[in-house]
Design goal:
It comes from Cisticola juncidis. Pfam families: FXa_inhibition, Ldl_recept_b. This is LRP1B protein. One of its GO terms (cellular component) is plasma membrane. GO terms for molecular function: Wnt receptor activity; Wnt-protein binding. The protein is mostly beta strands and 179 residues long. It has 2 domains: 123 residues, TolB, C-terminal domain (Neuraminidase), CATH 2.120.10.30; 45 residues, Laminin, CATH 2.10.25.10. It has no helices and 13 strands. Strands 4-5-6-7 form a 4-stranded antiparallel beta sheet, with no helix packed on it. The model has no long low-confidence stretch (mean pLDDT 90).
Length: 179
């Protein structure tokens, strides 16, 4: 799945398949300007910062069990969001400090380091990446991903895929080649 925020006409947190299909709103009320998003891939939670409402909140992948982690003026200055183990990590855009926030106790906030400049933060950890033996976009015998001539996008599961074309090309009737 792909998770993303939108604060155009109606602010929301959404999810869809990697090919853009099955778009679903998971948060569409009491939300104004969601600017950063982080996923807990193990427990299937979505965290986001709303800088207008000055809140850091969480829901499960279906939009249930919504909770506020913390609220206050300090949220307005946060950018980027990452989750690892029992903490959320973010950047304070005023002084470029990396903050660690307890995700079960939002009052547990600690500044870890200060940077010269930053707007985003990521945590890379092997165990947060699901191991899949094979998937629909694996290289086909003739070398193309999933048998697609240009782009292969996973669909509703790792066993399903959708072929797409680069700009200026159209998908052929076979659903795999681009012309």
């Amino acid at each position: 799945k792909l998770f993303f925020t939108d604060y155009g006409n109606a602010a929301k947190v959404e999810r869809c398949d990697m090919d853009g299909m099955n778009r679903t709103w998971i948060v569409d009320s009491k939300i104004e300007q969601p600017t950063a998003l982080a996923l807990d891939l193990i427990n299937k939670y979505v965290y986001w910062l709303d800088i207008y409402l000055e809140s850091l909140e969480v829901v499960d992948y279906q939009g249930r069990r919504r909770q506020t982690i913390t609220k206050g003026r300090q949220i307005r200055h946060l950018c980027g969001l990452a989750v690892f183990e029992n903490y959320l990590y973010t950047i304070n855009s005023d002084n470029f400090s990396i903050l660690r926030i307890g995700r079960y106790n939002g009052t547990d906030v600690q500044a870890l380091a200060r940077l010269d400049s930053a707007k985003e933060i990521r945590v890379y950890q092997k165990r947060t990446q699901a191991a899949v033996r094979s998937h629909a976009c694996d290289a086909a015998p003739h070398g193309t991903p999933g048998g697609c001539s240009h782009l292969c996008l996973l669909s509703s599961s790792y066993k399903a895929r959708t072929c797409r074309c680069r700009t200026g090309f159209i998908l052929g009737s076979d659903g795999r080649s681009c012309k």
